[in-house]
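2024-03-11 09:14:02 INFO queue: dequeued item UspA domain-containing protein, len=168
2024-03-11 09:14:02 INFO validating residues
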Amino acid sequence: MKDLEDYHVSTMHYSRIMIAVDDDDFISSQRAFDYACTVAKIYNIPLAVAMILETGDLNIFQSLSPDVLTKQRAAIAKDLNTYCDKAREFGVLDIQPFLGEGVPSHEIVDKIIPSFRPDLLVIGSETKMGRRKTIGTHAAYMARYAPCSVIIVRSDAQISRMISYFEE
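2024-03-11 09:14:37 INFO prediction written
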């Protein structure tokens, strides 16, 4: 306990933040994006916005069709630019977009994080029954394997469900 007695709380400050947003699940990404933008704006630090084209969601015919892939890439690039524009409008000064293809958790941990080198990764986490996997289902992998701190932000809807569950 001697170490604890000698310990003094010090200020902790992040210098680079990355937000991973899911093009197919705005609900899980919205609150996390708000959080990441707020921290980036308050501390005036760079913000990376990462989106992944989940090629595993395409059937074999879609994945072999150059037109389908081109349209998918254009759509996700447009949405990524919209997120970056929203962050700028909010007051974040330094924004870097990252677009990857493949399995979101692996693309983010293995490729995008080493490229941007954030000290904080922010992700949303929510899945809905009957839906395909969303970025939220990759949260556990990223929290475990990311070489930086990870904050998982729950959506308002999920928080409301949890509160009502505990009130029963």
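2024-03-11 09:14:37 INFO annotate: The helical segments are 2-6, 26-43, 60-64, 66-90, 104-116, 139-145, 156-167.
2024-03-11 09:14:38 INFO item closed
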